[in-house]
Amino acid sequence: MNRNWNSKKECRSFFKSLCAQEFAQGLAQNQQQLNQALQGFMLKQSGTWGAYRALKEEASVEEVFKISRVTWAFPKMIEGALEFYLGQDFTPGFYGVMEPSAQSPKVAVTDLQGVLVPGLVFNKNGNRLGKGKGFYDKTLETYRGIKVGICFDFQISPDTLPTEAHDVKVDYLITESGVVACRDFHKEDQE
Questions:
Q1: For residue 167, what pLDDT is reported?
Q2: Can you tell me the distance from the alpha carbon of 174 to that of 178, in angstroms, rounded to the nearest whole number?
């Protein structure tokens, strides 16, 4: 690809278009391979983790909800940030995101061992661009647990992404090709 993005808006526009094309073609085999990589990673984890219910053009993480040694908490959008709740019953929330029902118990973000984070585009340095509202960045800005970006290979850019100081990096990326430890690429980020 080798692109120099002029803005986040330009980068998002390109990857929104790419995602629309790729998801329209169907990604069943890619999703199965991603499920295997994600399950392999999550089987080594325990405790309470944050996850998400995928929108139409996001990689699904539903398969790992069956792992019994992990308790899952899901986000609700509240006042421009995310709060996590244990959930079994879901209702449509903002932007069509399935959110835990009103009776669901709240979990402090600091009590989460890790968080599975969706995104529009990532790079191997752990940089991420979401859909532009900053919900995950605001929620995870002081979070010290494990942040795992979930996407397909075509959503990993070889290029530097346009980022700002408040943008939160992920520690790992999981795609259909496996797990990437982003810290292995942080040196490149500083060059």
A1: 87
A2: 6
Residue that has been written with the tokens 């069956």 in this structure: 66
Tokens 């340095």 -> residue:
125
DSSP 167-190: PPPPSEEEETTEEEEGGGGHHHHH
DSSP-based three-state secondary structure for 156: strand
The CA dihedral of 157, 41, 98, 73, to the nearest 10 degrees, is -130
Is the CB of residue 118 less than 8 Å from the CB of residue 111? no
Nearest to 152 by CA among 27, 10, 3: 27
**What is the mean pLDDT of the segment spanning 2-22?**
84
The whole-model pTM stands at 0.90
- Rounded CA separation 35/27 (Å): 12
Q: For residue 191, what pLDDT is reported? A: 46
